[in-house]
Amino acid sequence: MTAARMMFAGVSSVLLLGVACASEPKKVTYEDDVLPIFRNNCLKCHNPDKQKGDLDLTSFSAAIKGGGSGTTINAGDPDGSALFKSITHADEPTMPPNAKLPDRDIDTIRRWIEGGLLQGAGSKAIAANRPAVDLSLKAGSVGRPDGPPPMPGALPLEPLVRAPRTSALTAIASSPWAPVVALAGAKQIVFYHTSDLDFIGVLPFAEGVACDVKFSRNGKLLLASGGRGGQSGLVAVWDIARGERVITVGDQFDSVLAADISPDQQWIALGGPDRLLKIYATKDGTLEHKKKKHTEWVTAVEFSPDGKYLASGDRNGGLVLWEAESGQEMFTLPGHKGGITAISWRSDSALFLSASEDGTVKWWKASDGSPLRSITAHAGGVLSARFGPDGRIVSSGRDNKVQIWDAAGKVVRTMAFNGELPNRVTFADDGTRVIGSDWKGAVYVWEVKTGKVLGELAANPPTLAERVQHWSDQLSTLKQEIVAAGVARSRADAEVVAAQVAAERIRKSITEVNRTIAQKNDEIRRHAAQLAVMADDAAAQSDLKAARAESVALKARSVALEQEAAAAGKALAAARKQAGEAQAAVGTATAKLEAAKASLSKWQSALQTAKSAERGKVSLR
């Protein structure tokens, strides 16, 4: 290559590089582009001295950290970022409150988020934070899944919170297909088997108190909504088999009081103190619909099982039926004179119920919004109501009753309840049991057939160390019970032997008396025969008279012995029964001891695993 060509090639390369650099868009950074916008419009309310919503925008680290509700900016996802939705006035609270930012400033912030939240020109982009899983289901997969019912996987057994005392539960939900119930509490969701009442584990809800929990219609997901009142709120969804959170949506500035996920898992609807019904897409967490229909806090939200409808209610008695797909209002349903406390759909989606503080439960027809039935269910107010799988309803109220109603609105069972103000109730998956809680935090499990209490669940479960101590104490107690049962069995066995000896003695006496009676009868016959030949034989007459007298006495003795024998037989049967019960008591105590040993071993192993995991975390730090 000649020198001229080499020079031309070098100049061309420089020119091409310059063109390439000139065509590359300028990277938007916090320090150069976004902070000046915040300084001119936002920092009066969002600075270290005045952090509205606990949000400070004066530094990059503070802006990325977010506010009281957590992160408000999702890298790569402006439409799913609470901050961006606020500045575009797509969601409340709006920023600035009185007027939107200029379009060029909004575009700058959008490009900053899309570009990975760069701090400065030399910074590295933050990885996009979009929902990790597309939750939407294919047609035909809504409802009961194929195979075994979805059960929780290996959930943490160590409670995340162990409160010093129990408090009222905010929500209870049963899986539609599996014997599993979820209890909402502070910073955690607690799971139990509804068949054997065994503790399954917990899922963390670090964002605050879960105000509402629901299983998806196929039972594979659990949704929890809540937060911290007046500060923050959201909806979290877990895959229960994996115990992993798969999506979090609806970053709010107040607690989310009610929420539900659509049967096809494409939408999450939520409501709360802002009086808005909001519907988010699970695909990317974007807000699809925001409805300003309710005049008070939204307290109940639920999709129909077929996914066609969405019903919502508020604490002013407002009740609205929406078309789920479009978010369009279908009917406003008047009639309640108190706050809506519950909404529940019947399994065929043809109708739903609403429960209210006005004391009534009302049935509504979905197709035209017409009222079908209204009953005065609980004096003072209905606190909870749910449809069961067979169309019956369980409800609880301020009259301190838990009741089951048939389709005609008649009470078919009143559950045994001695607690204080039953605030939440639901059916188990098969409808044979009811789970409910009271104002003090006690959780009861009733048998529907009899209305009797089968057991209780701990909404504030003990720690692993407490469980180990409990079963250690139980072992000592059960060992003492086995010793006492063994002593009782030995005493009962001795009483059986004594009763057998007494019965045998009486039997021998009866045999001897009967033998003597036979002999005496022979003697009477001889004397009678002798008198038949010699009627005037005085000695024979005297002997016959004496023999007959002795026979009468012997027969009386025989009767008395038969009565003694009957009494001895009863005493022997009672002794044998007592011995059998004593033997069964030994067996029961032994079985309890073995079960206690197994439980102790289980919880000791779980505690050891938890300690090992904690040591691993410490070493990594």
Descriptive overview:
The protein is of the alpha+beta class and 621 residues long. It has four domains: 23-114, no CATH class; 172-392, YVTN repeat-like/Quinoprotein amine dehydrogenase (Methylamine Dehydrogenase, Chain H, 7 Propeller); 393-461, Thrombin, subunit H (Beta Barrel), CATH 2.40.10; 465-620, Helix Hairpins (Orthogonal Bundle), CATH 1.10.287. Helices cover 34% and strands 26% of the residues. It has seven helices and 26 strands. The strands form six sheets. It has a six-stranded antiparallel β-sheet, with no helix packed on it.
SSE blueprint:
Elements: H1 3-23, H2 30-41, H3 60-65, H4 82-87, H5 103-114, E1 172-174, E2 180-193, E3 199-215, E4 221-228, E5 232-239, E6 244-252, E7 258-261, E8 267-271, E9 277-281, E10 287-291, E11 298-303, E12 309-314, E13 319-323, E14 329-332, E15 340-345, E16 351-356, E17 360-365, E18 371-376, E19 382-387, E20 393-397, E21 402-405, E22 411-414, E23 422-427, E24 433-438, E25 443-447, E26 453-457, H6 464-533, H7 538-620
Antiparallel strand pairs: 1-2, 2-3, 3-4, 4-5, 5-6, 7-8, 8-9, 9-10, 11-12, 12-13, 13-14, 15-16, 16-17, 17-18, 19-20, 20-21, 21-22, 23-24, 24-25, 25-26
Helix pairs in contact: 2-5, 6-7
